[in-house]
Write a structure and sequence with these properties.
Blueprint (H helix, E strand, L loop, with lengths): L2 H15 L2 H8 L3 H15 L4 E3 L4 E3 L1 H25 L6 E7 L1 H8 L3 H7 L3 E7 L6 H4 L3 E5 L8 E8 L1 E5 L1 H7 L14 E2 L8 E6 L2 E6 L4 E2 L3 H9 L5 E4 H10 L3 E3 L8 E7 L7 H15 L2
Parallel strand pairs: 3-4, 3-5, 8-11
Antiparallel strand pairs: 1-2, 5-14, 6-14, 7-12, 7-13, 9-10
Helix pairs in contact: 1-2, 1-3, 1-4, 2-3
Amino acid sequence: MNDRLQQLAIFVRTVETGSFSKVAREFGLSQPSVSRTVAALEERLGVKLLTRTTRQISVTDAGEALLSRARDALAGVEEAENAARGADRLSGTLRVAMPATYGVRQIVPVLPAFLDRHPLLKVDLMMSDRYENLIAEGADLALRLGNQPDSGFVTRKLASTRRLFVAAPAYLARRGTPNVLADLGQHHLIGGPSVGNEHSWTAFRHGTNETQSVDLRVRTRSALGALASATAGLGITIASTWMCADELASGKLVEVLADYQLEPAIAYVVFPAGRRPSQKARVFSDYLERVLSSG
């Protein structure tokens, strides 16, 4: 990357992250080097782009005017290079934000085939059970589960999977097996990201929606934590089939209330608002839609 493009890239990421130190880590530079690069860009253009205080970095009107055009210029360079190489010769780093358990169970297993097709491409898997700020974190796209994300984002549905009630055989041997949704009132229940409402659970049976108030015995913000808690015999939880397939196959967990249907878990790809998705992001989302929708 030549000096002018480097200056633009560092400026854009400084605005997006609001932090010289974060940008320094991304580019493998020192924090003073990042500050000097932005100062050099300001001197070359003859305008003030950023206002710096001890607490924050804010963008000026001139900086705002440059920002979108700088993003377009950088994206254009990458698109031109990838177009010259062809869709099968993508390069650079693809940054993907996703829930940790979904990433481990669904995305990592299908990555080898994708990366074999694109040997010049690197992948940064930003796995976390908290929602990343896509712009600030520099993600090319994110994978989200549940309700469709805010309409302000560019979204695309990837796949829909069944959710089910599961428990460990040892737990059911101690507490008994529920036969109807109302029986959950007499059981220990485990809440997590895949469960949804912490106060009531709703399921569909015989053409009717049934709702049962619940009092969670165990709460966790980790989907993997909820699954581990159920496997340890702490109670009943709700999990997607992709999440608990191994545990069901091994007998560590079994399905309960099998004649009930829960709302399916829908996976979406989300692109950062305000800019056109990069070619590598589009190619990757196409690939995921193909392999995930086919099971």
